[in-house]
UniProtKB/TrEMBL annotation:
Keywords: Hydrolase
Family: Belongs to the histone deacetylase family.
Name the UniProt record assigns to this protein: Histone deacetylase
GO molecular function: histone deacetylase activity; hydrolase activity
BP-aspect Gene Ontology terms: epigenetic regulation of gene expression
A Pfam family assignment: Hist_deacetyl
Domain Histone deacetylase: 20-286
Gene3D superfamilies in UniProt: Histone deacetylase domain (3.40.800.20)
Length: 300
């Protein structure tokens, strides 16, 4: 069964100015249920990530200042949020969602978090609406529990996974792959194990070619036993921040490539949703829903 992390905190704890396009967290589960892609029992409600697991990735002083609301205004502005207790609790629930997804993926082959993909969070600070790094925390938990030994993080959000690259820059057991807009945020890129910068306006065929070529290249010298997929849909042509020209169908083809790879190689995979900022919410929901539909079709 496809297991999906979703908690009401994903929606109701967001500051007022950030409700759109974050309304997707409310609409996406409803769409998946309405169309019959999944049943109610597919969803599980994560609790709060343990401090121990957070500190395996993030610096203790940063996490303490974050949870005690002691970060200064400059540090808060860098994250894009004005911090409050509900927001920080929300982040910890999202972290636990992705960690629990890792457990479910070991059992069922795939699991997905309606939220997550917080790849701009570094070991010692947050950026770009990311306070803690969910895939990094879950990956380190797998390594520490000897549940995986070689992890590939496939980050296909339009923005480089700069935080994830920094977290694992000296860890040979985690391979970070980011395919992102060359001219998009962040202005200063970190160095992933493999970065594929994309030109503005890139279309489906070239995008898919570069993705397949990159995955083939990685698998020639890195043999993962677990995958994480940051499946941001801000690559689509309607996205107001993305600057790329990929169609919704092209984005679906991207998901098929990654999820088929996991299935064919018998690699457990955790999918976090990442970004999506089209002006019309229907495009956001359709592109994200395609990821869930594709996972359901391929694995179940």
């Amino acid at each position: 069964m496809l297991k999906i992390a979703f908690n009401d905190y994903y929606i109701h704890s967001l500051p007022e100015g950030h409700r759109f396009p974050m309304v997707k967290y409310e609409l996406l589960p409803k769409q998946l249920l309405l169309e019959g892609t999944v049943e109610e029992d597919a969803f599980f409600s994560p609790g709060i990530i343990s401090k121990e697991q957070v500190l395996a990735i993030h610096h203790a002083d940063y996490f303490q200042n974050l949870t005690e609301l002691k970060l200064d205004r400059r540090a808060q502005r860098k994250t894009g949020f004005v911090h409050n207790e509900d927001l920080i609790l929300r982040e910890q629930i999202i972290m636990e969602g992705t960690r629990q997804c890792a457990e479910y993926a070991l059992e069922h082959g795939v699991s997905m978090n309606i939220a997550g993909g917080t790849h701009h969070s570094f070991t010692d600070h947050g950026e770009g609406f990311c306070l803690l790094n969910d895939q990094a925390i879950a990956a380190q938990w797998l390594l520490d529990q000897n549940k995986a030994s070689k992890i590939l993080i496939i980050d296909l959000d339009v923005h480089q996974g700069n935080g994830t690259a920094e977290v694992f820059r000296n860890n040979a057991n985690v391979f970070t792959f980011s395919m992102h807009g060359e001219n998009n945020y962040p202005l200063k890129k970190e160095t992933s194990d493999l970065d594929v910068p994309l030109p503005d306006g890139i279309k489906d065929n070239e995008y898919i070619y570069l993705l397949e070529q990159s995955l083939d290249r990685i698998l020639k010298f890195f043999a993962p036993d677990f995958l994480f997929f940051q499946s941001g849909i801000d690559i689509i042509e309607t996205d107001k921040l993305g600057r790329l020209g990929v169609s919704i169908e092209g984005c679906k083809q991207r998901d098929k490539i990654v999820l088929n790879l996991a299935k064919e190689l018998n690699l457990p995979i955790v999918v976090s949703m990442g970004g999506g900022y089209s002006e019309e919410i229907k495009y956001i929901i359709e592109a994200h829903a395609n990821t869930f539909r594709t996972a359901q079709h391929i694995f179940f």
